[in-house]
Design brief:
This protein is α/β, with parallel strands linked by helices and 439 residues long. The protein is built from 16 helices and 14 strands. The chain has an eight-stranded mixed sheet with strand order 3-4-2-1-5-6-7-8, sandwiched between helices. It is globular and about 70 Å long. Residues 1-5 have low confidence and may be disordered.
Length: 439
């Protein structure tokens, strides 16, 4: 397929998560939509008609929604929003409550998940496919882009490419078969489903022209799982946040933003604080450790606040906050924490948020890989192999804070950080699209 030198390239993006849904996954396609036109590509997005107060998918499934497609024509491109379809188990919850008919609901959910890849009747997202097909029948597009999850959108692009012979880029925000949480779960039926869906994953992606994903670790895993060319489009951050810092107290403030996973070693940090406190090397008022949004996850909240009664005065937690408020707190912090995961490595969204607010990053513990390299590349933080190293760092940082020294937000390598802006990553995507169309 040759690029038309006069008309802009037209890209059809099929994505489940998209604003106003307030999810991490929604931000990736949203910033493509927002920036692609700057690089000669006109986007049309097919997504769901999320309500303005939607924070997670589970919070909106019982709500009433628009029954017809709606179309928004914006300066950046076009958005086609399709109705949200509730499956039978969700309707049962809405009618009878969460505690009734649990087993029948689980059976029905299993059937929907199993049969959605075979019959549209069981596919809760089928309106997205129908809208995309109708759009391709009306207008000529040069490329299709899908981003998962849900992974059923890969099926839509697979079918649409066969019908309309259009190049297709498929995007993995996370792993499907290689998803670390699914891979670690045991149980016959869970693993049976995992391999069942892997059949469809390989079938769909075999027709993709290119796979893109969020970082080198995912790219390496996907190269083995789907046997397709893989390139990286990082998530990144929108821009540096220009907020006025209030005068800082002498207390060293360290913040952790967002989700804490079971496999992340928060105890590495909590034990270090306990040792320092019980040995008299630090006292209450020297250090404040803030967990933003942790109160939304009761199990993880209990894990932190009940670790040891002696360190409770050092810890603050909050409910889930608007992003603007979270960023404001990050700006005022001395350091931001990214906990590594022994089972998986990734540059988490919070890590980019710290860069956006120029908050130096602490990798706890060291991952000896992607996260460590990211911090070294930007000259913007530290990682710790042992608790002794972390304890020494905390003591020195507290002393530096009291004397006005320490790591500075100005130490960030801004030039290298700008590579990870959402706009620049969209530019990288536009180059990939143009290269595909040239070939």
């Amino acid at each position: 397929m040759k690029i038309n030198s006069v008309l802009p390239i037209k890209a059809l993006i099929i994505c489940h998560d998209f604003p106003p849904l307030n999810s991490i996954g929604a931000q990736r396609p949203y910033h493509w939509f927002k920036n692609l036109k700057k690089f000669g590509i006109e986007p049309t997005v097919v997504t769901k008609n999320w309500s303005n107060n939607a924070a997670t998918v589970s919070e909106v499934f019982t709500a009433e929604h628009q029954k017809e497609n709606s179309v928004e024509n914006l300066p950046e491109g076009k958005i086609i929003r399709v109705p949200i379809e509730h499956i039978l188990p969700e309707k049962m919850i809405a009618k009878y409550g969460i505690n009734k008919y649990v087993l029948p609901r689980k059976v029905l959910t299993f059937l929907y998940r199993t049969l959605a890849h075979i019959f549209f009747l069981f596919d809760r997202n089928v309106f997205m496919y129908k809208a995309a097909k109708e759009e391709l029948q009306k207008e000529k597009y040069d490329i299709i882009i899908t981003t998962g999850e849900p992974w059923i959108v890969f099926k839509y692009a697979y079918l649409l490419k066969k019908q309309f012979n259009i190049p297709w880029i498929t995007d993995y925000r996370d792993g499907w078969f290689i998803n670390q949480e699914h891979a670690l779960r045991r149980g016959f039926f869970h693993q049976l489903m995992r391999y069942y869906e892997y059949y469809f994953e390989k079938k769909y992606t075999a027709l993709a022209d290119l796979v893109i994903t969020v970082d080198p670790f995912m790219a390496e895993k996907l190269n083995k799982a789907v046997i397709r060319p893989v390139k990286i489009i990082y998530n990144g951050f929108e821009k540096f946040i220009d907020l006025t810092e209030s005068p800082k107290a002498k207390t060293l403030t360290i913040v952790h933003t967002g989700t804490l996973k079971n496999t992340q070693d928060v105890e590495f940090l909590l034990r270090s604080i306990q040792v320092l406190h019980e040995s008299g090397k630090i006292k209450v008022g020297d250090l404040k450790l803030i967990f933003l949004g942790l109160e939304y996850e009761q199990i993880q909240l209990s894990r932190v606040v009940n670790f040891n009664i002696s360190i409770k005065p050092y810890i603050e937690t909050t409910a889930r906050l608007p992003k603007e408020k979270a960023m404001e707190i990050n700006v005022g912090a001395d350091y931001g924490i990214t906990f590594s995961d022994p089972n998986w490595t990734a540059i988490y969204a919070k890590t980019y948020d710290y860069v956006a607010t120029k908050t130096p990053i602490l990798i706890i513990p060291s991952d000896n890989g992607l996260l460590d390299n990211f911090v070294k590349e930007l000259n913007f933080g530290f990682s710790f192999k042992t608790e002794d190293e972390l304890q020494h760092f905390i003591c020195k940082s507290i002393e530096d804070k009291k004397t006005g020294k320490g790591f500075s937000k100005n130490d960030l390598n801004v030039e290298k950080a700008l590579f990870y802006t959402r706009e620049n990553q969209t530019k990288e995507l536009s180059t990939i699209i143009k290269d595909i169309l040239k070939s």
